[in-house]
Write a structure and sequence with these properties.
By secondary structure, this protein is α/β, with parallel strands linked by helices. The protein is 38% helix and 14% strand. It is built from 9 helices and 8 strands. The chain has an 8-stranded parallel beta barrel with strand order 1-2-3-4-5-6-7-8, surrounded by 4 helices. Helix 4 packs parallel to helix 5 and helix 7 packs parallel to helix 8.
Length: 280
């Protein structure tokens, strides 16, 4: 078949495997891919278990030359109303920053902390701007922080935060599976708890990317059926991966992508078989 817009070659240097995959190290080494460290998604690995986790992380990245680090997210929010929670959130992002420097990570993934049942958007946006304007200039190293969507029902909320903070070190991480599940939920329930229409903010993940493209630095790639965040393999879900990767290649060709799956080998093989990933 003649190569058209849907047939392109994904750059190996832009593809990463999340350590949440049981075969992450093996797959990354076999295909020459990067690794996104997921060991510190749970903060106790920074404290109570660090002396056990640190050598395991070093072993994981020993033969890998490209690293991204996922920061902790449990109970954290950059817009927390409780000042003690806000204090802990800032402490954790600073600890994650030190680990980025320690392991040589070029990007840090940080969850937005937005949930519609906890924060109104009119609260979230200015408070997030305030947090990142204060914190970003003080972080060590030269890595980029990429703000990841989780429960958002439209792209503008985080995009506006990035615009207003206006830092070259703060960009977006579009989690494709989160978008698909969140939009599926929004389109089903139509309104949020205060009666605001959330069903028409964004049609699908492709529109989300089109609108966010100038601010995107990273993607989390996994699939689902628009109902739950199941982190399925690429072929199992309602996201059209050919269309997705074509859009990424067209609009954000320099962005990095992490396959965030429990097992990555099968999906990498699919990319190779379909000719979407460099063979050498």
């Amino acid at each position: 078949m003649k190569k058209e817009n849907l047939y392109f070659v994904l750059k190996k240097e832009n593809l990463y495997i999340s350590k949440m995959a049981s075969d992450a190290k093996e797959t990354a080494e076999r295909y020459g891919l990067g690794i996104e460290l997921a060991q510190f998604c749970t903060a106790w690995n920074m404290d109570l278990k660090f002396k056990y986790i640190d050598p395991l992380v070093k072993e994981t990245v020993k033969n890998v030359d490209r690293i991204i680090l996922h920061a902790p997210f449990n109970e954290l929010s950059p817009v927390a109303i409780d000042p003690l929670v806000l204090e802990v959130t800032e402490k954790r992002i600073r600890q994650a920053a030190e680990l980025c420097v320690r392991y040589g990570a070029k990007k840090m993934v940080f969850h937005s902390g937005y949930t519609s049942h906890m924060y109104y958007k009119i609260w979230y946006e200015p408070q997030a701007v305030k947090f990142f304007k204060r914190v970003m200039p003080t972080l060590p190293g030269d890595f980029t922080v990429v703000l990841e969507n989780v429960f958002e029902d439209e792209p503008d909320l985080l995009m506006n935060v990035i615009k207003e903070v206006d830092s070259e070190r703060l960009k977006l991480c579009v989690d494709v599976g989160h978008v698909n599940a969140s939009l599926g939920f929004a389109h089903r329930i139509k309104t949020n708890r205060i009666g605001e229409d959330i069903s028409s903010g964004c049609k699908d993940v492709y529109e989300w990317i089109e609108r966010s493209a100038p601010y995107i630095s990273h993607y989390h790639i996994h699939n689902n059926h628009g109902e739950r965040d199941t982190h399925n393999i690429l072929a199992d879900g309602t996201v059209d991966m050919k269309r997705l990767f074509s859009l990424i290649d067209t609009l954000t060709p320099d962005a990095t992508c992490t396959l965030e799956l429990s097992d990555a080998g099968e999906s990498v093989k699919l990319l190779m078989t379909e000719g979407f990933l460099q063979a050498s």
